[in-house]
Structures are given as C-alpha cells and as structure tokens.
Amino acid sequence: MNNCAIEINPADSVWGIASAIDIYNCNPLKIRDANLIKRFVIELCDLIEMKRFGETQVVHFGEDEKVEGFSMVQLIETSLISAHFANLTNTTYLDVFSCKTYDPERVKVFAQDFFKGTHSTINVTLRH
Predict the structure, then answer these.
(1) What is the span of the domain harbouring residue 91?
(2) Which member of 64, 82, 106, 107 has the greatest number of CB atoms within 10 A?
(3) What is the pTM of this model?
(4) In the structure, what pLDDT confidence band is assigned to residue 66 with cuts at 50, 70 and 90?
C-alpha cells in the first residue's frame, strides 16, 4: 500500500479495507445535490484508482427528519462505496470497502474538502 497511514504486514491475510468516515457541518447545498454527489463519486474513484461498476445510485428518502437526505451507492470492481447525507445535521456518513488497497486518510481529506465539512472522524477495519 503506497503512502497509506495504515501499514499492512504482507504476512497478514488481509482481504480488504473498510473505512467509515463521518464528516460534520457539511455545506448544505453540496449534500443536497444529487449531481454533485455523483461527481464526488467519480472524482473519488479516480483519486483512489477504483473502477466503477455501473452507474452511481443516488436516492432521496426519509420521512423522519432525523434520517432525511440522499443515500448513495456505487459498486466498484473491488467492492462498494456508499454514503448517507443527513439533512438535519448536515453530516456525511461515507463508507468505502475494497479488497484493493487504498489510503483511507486520503479519502477522508478529499471527502471533507469536497463537502466543505469542518471536521471528521474515521474508523478503519482491516477485513480478514
């Protein structure tokens, strides 16, 4: 894994990396725009060199204002990228799972900058 904050020992049998990234105080206009969300996915996949499989699905739902917002799903050849954008709190909940290595910190920085969040958290799990 090049330039990654997570070091993987080649002797470990790591099958993939799962990153859960929460981005707070995002720009409300950005997380409420389906076309911008689709553009984010294209740019993210280019950044981490993931090949998209099919079109990005972006659907608005949620009768309860606590969960109302867009949800996004993008299949990639090495697994899946998904997110939910919570209107009430202007928070982005982004998940990236891939058996191809990538730098989770790079994804976090890119996503926070794209959605203009003030801060973020990340949880990374190595899948075996």
Answers:
(1) 16-127
(2) 107
(3) 0.90
(4) confident
Confidence of residue 2 (pLDDT cuts 50, 70, 90): very low
- pLDDT tops 60 at residue 113: yes
Residue 54 is encoded by which pair of tokens?
């099919």
**89 vs 4: CA distance, rounded Å:** 30
Residue with tokens 């409300």: 28
d(CA 101, CA 87): 31
Query: Is 3 part of a structural domain of the chain?
Result: no
- The answer to whether position 47 is within a domain reads yes
Two tokens, residue 117 = 């969040």
